[in-house]
Design goal:
single chain; about 270 residues; alpha/beta; Rossmann fold; eight-stranded mixed sheet
Amino acid sequence: MEHHHPIEKTMLPDIKNMIMVVSGKGGVGKSTVAAGIAMSLAEEGYSVGLLDADIFGPSIPTLMNLYDVERPLTVEKDRKQIMEPYERYGIKVMSIGFFFDPEQAVIWRGPMVTNVLKQLITETNWGELDYLIIDTPPGTGDIHITLQQQFYITGALVVTTPQLVAIADVQRAIGMLRDKVIGVPVLGIIENMAWFTPSKHPEEKYFLFGKGGGEELSKTFDVPLIAQIPMNETICASCDGGKLNELFNDSEVRAGFDNLTVRILGLTEKITEC
């Protein structure tokens, strides 16, 4: 007979909404989407934090032009030392990448990963936040389980690309999020790299990675497709150069994130009212 121990979750009273950004596999632009969501919410006037919870492959420092910073300073609060997050584009940012050389491999087992994640969340001086966006590793594992078991997560966003072959990967991610014991609301599916539009020819669309995958996933798992984010030839250079703000120079990309932000605000407001 199975026995489930009661789950005790940590309440963070100064953070109104904690949103996980997940993907079934790597290479779908999950971190870029997570950072774009944070930036879009901040531009709307919300207080936003961005946590890089990808312990083994942190990319938020590069995206936010924080890849060569010193270790975060610590301050005393309530008689204990907590870490000061860095700030970029009006977003408070924390990442394990701030503590290691980019070329240094992080070789930790599950319990260590879990403890570090909890420290990054509870021992960072976030202040009062409307949204804490959490960029998680691809797949399913200790990070996701710890977040779902030990914190009050408002909901999760699933990032995928248009290929139909992504269904199996997304199925595992959604299955984890809908677990009967530790499940969290799945707010929606985001189809990233939905199409390619050259910056100088905004009327053109090229479906380089196929078409219809996001809609098919939405129907299969009864989860709304809440955004389609296009790509152009400048995105890679902007991200690698830490110039994430340049993403929004493209009208098509900005429209995708603007629509996504509206949907997130509506969905989290409904959850808060329940």
